[in-house]
């Protein structure tokens, strides 16, 4: 007697880190960033269809673990993600993630996937999408401050989506900058390694800050920021963790994903609760304007919102089914008689005894 096999409804497609790398290589990093940005833009355009809640965060002295759920009524998605700035000291990533997409009608998961690589891609795609609407006309140069895990993805997204051709890199750790210089070689960008933040922002139309430190840091001071630039602030994404001096905020027009989450986690945690901000989805739908003058400082106070991960899950779910870059996980119990969950164990046990 052979052991009962997992039933067809027990199997859920699973994209491992290796599977995700295969998908990225198949599409090309820039191709994937462009496709992802289109999915993210579509979901911002239908923003009002989504259930939205600030992410659920469990804080500890060294970091945070967060759950990020949302649904459009047909599909439900969530991401598990951590943020631990000191993890690199033990050879670990600052940010790791995985996620699930489910069918709302049955509640059954349809995809489970790694999301560490996918988060880097979706964060970069979102940043560049937002900049496409807000950056000064003819922007060509970006300062990239913080050259860690997210940084090359950011640079390539701004190249592919915004037409940036020059990147000026700075990190307090020169090894991080050298790593990024190496990784960006031959990618069609002019890459300049800088020794200070001030040097990096010289001539930059866009300034991206993507550092990791669990404190109120000052990566940019007020005197560093001239009129007309677009700031893409990625690393301030947790209570007590910001990157920009408060005075920059009061000079900028601030664009956010979901205000109830950004007010807790973003740069604007430094400002009064009623400080005016613009919700990015309204720029996408045309309900409100993005950049209105050459001299205006626009600031994307990015914290990362659940709909962006939902878009990424939706994209991977469609992409992976046209490939073999996934395995089938025996994840859901599928007894012959759906009410006989207990009996399934007994039948399995009898099969074990007979084998
Ligand atoms: N907004 C979002 O959607 C989003 C998504 C993913 C990650 N993040 C955040 O982005 C940040 C970067 O993530 P990562 O995975 O690249 O982290 P990482 O640890 O790999 O890299 C961070 C880099 O910042 C550098 N750094 C720290 N302090 C600095 C300073 N004062 N000046 C210059 N450089 C400095 C470090 O040396 C390091 O190289 C984290 O804070 C993370 O939480 C935000």
UniProtKB/TrEMBL annotation:
Q: Which Gene3D superfamilies match?
A: NAD(P)-binding Rossmann-like Domain (3.40.50.720), ornithine cyclodeaminase, domain 1 (3.30.1780.10)
Q: Which domain of life is it from?
A: Bacteria
Q: Which InterPro entries match?
A: NAD(P)-bd_dom_sf, ODC_Mu_crystall, ODC_N
Q: Which NCBIfam families match?
A: PRK07589.1
UniProt name for this protein: Ornithine cyclodeaminase
């Amino acid at each position: 007697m052979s052991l009962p096999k997992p039933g067809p409804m027990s199997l859920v497609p699973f994209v491992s880190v290796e599977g995700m790398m295969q998908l990225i290589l198949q599409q090309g990093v820039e191709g994937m960033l462009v496709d992802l940005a289109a999915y993210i833009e579509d979901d911002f355009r239908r923003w009002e269809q989504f259930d939205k809640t600030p992410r659920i965060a469990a804080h500890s002295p060294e970091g945070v673990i967060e759950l990020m759920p949302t649904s459009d009524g047909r599909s439900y998605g969530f991401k598990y993600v951590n943020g631990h700035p000191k993890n690199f000291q033990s050879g670990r990533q600052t940010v790791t993630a995985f996620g699930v997409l489910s069918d709302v009608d049955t509640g059954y998961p349809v995809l489970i996937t790694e999301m560490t690589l996918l988060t880097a891609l979706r964060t970069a795609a979102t940043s560049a999408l937002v900049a496409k609407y807000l950056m000064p006309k003819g922007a060509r140069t970006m300062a990239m401050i913080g050259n860690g895990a997210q940084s090359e993805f950011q640079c390539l997204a701004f190249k592919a989506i915004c037409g940036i051709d020059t990147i000026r890199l700075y990190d307090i750790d020169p090894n991080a900058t050298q790593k990024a210089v190496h990784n960006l070689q031959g990618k069609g960008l002019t890459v300049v390694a800088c020794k200070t933040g001030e040097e990096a922002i010289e001539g930059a139309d866009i300034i991206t800050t993507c550092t990791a430190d669990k404190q109120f840091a000052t990566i940019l001071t007020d005197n560093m920021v001239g009129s007309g630039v677009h700031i893409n602030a990625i690393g301030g994404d947790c209570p007590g963790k910001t990157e920009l001096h408060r005075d920059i905020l009061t000079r900028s027009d601030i664009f956010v994903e979901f205000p109830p989450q950004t007010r807790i986690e973003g740069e604007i945690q430094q400002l009064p609760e009623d400080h005016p901000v613009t919700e990015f989805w309204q720029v996408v739908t045309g309900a409100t304007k993005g950049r209105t003058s050459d001299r205006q400082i626009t600031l994307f106070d990015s914290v990362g919102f659940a709909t962006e991960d939902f878009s990424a899950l939706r994209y991977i779910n469609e992409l992976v089914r046209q490939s073999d870059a996934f395995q089938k996980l025996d994840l859901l119990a599928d007894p012959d008689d759906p009410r006989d969950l207990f009996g399934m164990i007994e039948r399995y046990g009898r099969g074990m005894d007979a084998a």
